[in-house]
Prior knowledge:
alpha/beta, UDP-N-acetylmuramoyl-L-alanine:D-glutamate ligase, nine-stranded mixed beta sheet, 9 strands, binds adenosine-5'-diphosphate, binds the ligand Cc1ncc(COP(=O)(O)OP(=O)(O)O)c(N)n1, nucleotide-binding, thiamine biosynthesis, HMP/HMP-P_kinase_dom, ATP-binding, transferase
Amino acid sequence: MVNSYPQALTIAGSDSDGSAGMQADLHTFFARHVYGASVMTACVAGNSYGIHASVPMPTDFIDQEFKDLADDYHIRAAKTGMLADSELINTVVKNYQAADFGPLVVDPVIMTKHGNQLLEESAFNTLRTNLIPLATVLTPNFFEVEKIAEMTISSDADMEKAAHKLQDMGAKNIIAKGSHADPHQTVVKDFVLLASGESFWLSEPYHETDRVNGTGDSLSACITAELAKGTPMKHAIEIAKQFVNAAIGSPIEVGHKFGPVNHWAAMDRDFS
Ligand SMILES: Nc1ncnc2c1ncn2[C@@H]1O[C@H](COP(=O)(O)OP(=O)(O)O)[C@@H](O)[C@H]1O
Ligand SMILES: Cc1ncc(COP(=O)(O)OP(=O)(O)O)c(N)n1
């Protein structure tokens, strides 16, 4: 007997320490029982202390990666991660539009939580005008909400207003991730605005740990995996929030500083 698994795609940068980027996406797809394919857009060299070098992939190589997958695989959902600059964003937009890869989850990776800039400032407008309108789901973190919506967020009402601004830019569903900068907070809450207009806050317990590399990638990859399985949007987002929380809540010892989340802890859990 040949087993069959839904196929999902990550269009992202490779992170050499395995904690974030494409590697975190593929770990997440595996943990959610989805087959993971990848279009590599860039390579970063780094470890748990940070990122130390980065190179973009040639655009004709990216074209070939898309072509080879489109010719052979049945991708049911895709996500974007690090896209580095305007040229790479436009290459990905062109190829995604030509392919039939299902819903698109856009993680608008601008900067890591440790301050490494992964998208050139000059590409922000291309992100806003060319990629965000294609997003079935947009998953900005607190900093990215402020940057993309061009607003300062200092209250829940600000966050809700910003999410509506992002929807006005063309993204269908938004999960605007809240701040977790305060070590005394007890919960981390994200604002969700669905295409239907329904909106709500999702809360989970705050875990005080340095092992949080790849949280955003794992959240967006989990949404992508669930969409590839056909899980309805609201439930896909709810599962992803619980999945990431479980992965953060049970740290593993990898690296000496800011380590990865633990996908094993979240594997095969029945999130309702
Ligand atoms: N220390 C933490 N405890 C619990 N949840 C967290 C913690 N850090 C991040 N999260 C959650 O992980 C998800 C990814 O968010 P975030 O880390 O802000 O993304 P990014 O990696 O894009 O900066 C969000 O749902 C956020 O609330
Ligand atoms: C290659 C690569 N892509 C993305 C990231 C950032 O990952 P993300 O999960 O959005 O953020 P952190 O939680 O790692 O800050 C990365 N580091 N490398």
